[in-house]
Design goal:
single chain; 250 residues; mainly alpha; Peroxidase, domain 1; Peroxidase, domain 2; 2 domains; two-stranded antiparallel ribbon; 4 strands; 44% helix; globular; binds protoporphyrin IX containing FE
Length: 250
């Protein structure tokens, strides 16, 4: 988890690519509950709690249940500046997505499966508003969008949208971890440009079609890619620690 240098937590750090305040709160509560158990204080890292929380959300919402590889340590530093360099952007095209994910050892199929996490959750208007107000079929940065869907999004995010307004990433079943996200893409109902481009670009379209048609293929690819995700930047030695509270180094 990210901390602000002043000790304030990630949800207030302004890095603009962070956990929501509710999510930070849930992790903090889980950590406090573990620390309070006899013999458990100082044994479970925030990184492991976060990975298990992600797994639990996926499975509670109807997705696959999978084992999480445990033993990650928490970071001892925070660098806000690198956040925007290590995360993909909502306007990324296929080459940009593939390049960033490949740097972390992911294949294109892994990247598409992980994007399937957008079968749940929300996004703020600023992440896609340019797409719905300068809508032109042939702009290279803006993959096509279903017209009816576009109109509904303009109601959610009017030109003077509120910074807290949100839209569901999966317009059809936002609270179920299923493969509907991929089917939406086939009807040009992907919310972020980085979602829709997976279907628009002919190089990734066959995988979107596979995951839309075959939920088991999606789930298996998702679980395999999540295991890889959990191994990125692994800290197991003196470069890490088990934080006492998740929002501050010890
Ligand atoms: C492929 C590149 C990706 C891009 C460009 C991307 C971009 C985004 C953006 C812009 C948001 C909305 C943030 C906001 O408005 O507050 C978001 C939300 C979300 N992303 Fe991604 N993401 C990507 C990959 C992933 C991966 C790999 C996962 C997990 C495996 C993931 C899971 C989620 C979830 C669950 C949400 C909803 C969060 C909530 O409801 O609070 N995304 N993503």
């Amino acid at each position: 988890m990210l901390m602000a240098p002043n000790g304030d937590d990630e949800s207030h750090s302004g890095a603009d690519a962070t956990l929501s305040p509710d999510a930070v709160d849930a992790i903090n509560k889980a950590k406090a509950a573990v620390e309070a158990l006899p013999g458990c204080a100082g044994k479970v890292s925030c990184a492991d709690i976060l990975a298990m929380a992600a797994r639990d959300v996926v499975s509670l919402l109807g997705g696959p249940n999978y084992a999480v590889e445990l033993g990650r340590l928490d970071g001892k530093t925070f660098n806000r500046a690198i956040v925007k360099h290590v995360l993909p952007g909502p306007g990324f095209n296929l080459d940009q997505l593939n390049s960033l994910f490949a740097q972390n050892g992911f294949t294109q199929t892994d990247m598409i499966a992980l994007s399937g996490a957008h079968t749940i959750g929300v996004t703020h208007c600023d992440k896609f508003v340019r797409r719905i107000y300068t809508f032109k079929q042939h702009l290279p940065w803006n993959p096509p969008m279903n017209l009816e869907y576009l109109r509904s999004l303009r109601r959610v995010c009017p030109i003077n949208y509120s910074p807290t307004a949100i839209a569901m990433l999966d317009a059809s079943t936002p609270r179920v971890f299923d493969n509907a996200y991929f089917n939406n893409l086939r009807y040009n109902k992907g919310l972020l440009a980085s979602d829709q481009v997976l279907f628009t670009d002919r190089r990734s379209r066959p995988t979107v079609n596979l995951f839309a048609a075959n939920s088991t293929a999606f789930q298996e690819a998702f679980v395999a890619a999540m295991a890889k995700l959990g191994r990125i930047g692994l800290k197991t030695g003196s470069d890490g620690e088990i934080r006492r509270v998740c929002t501050a180094v010890n």
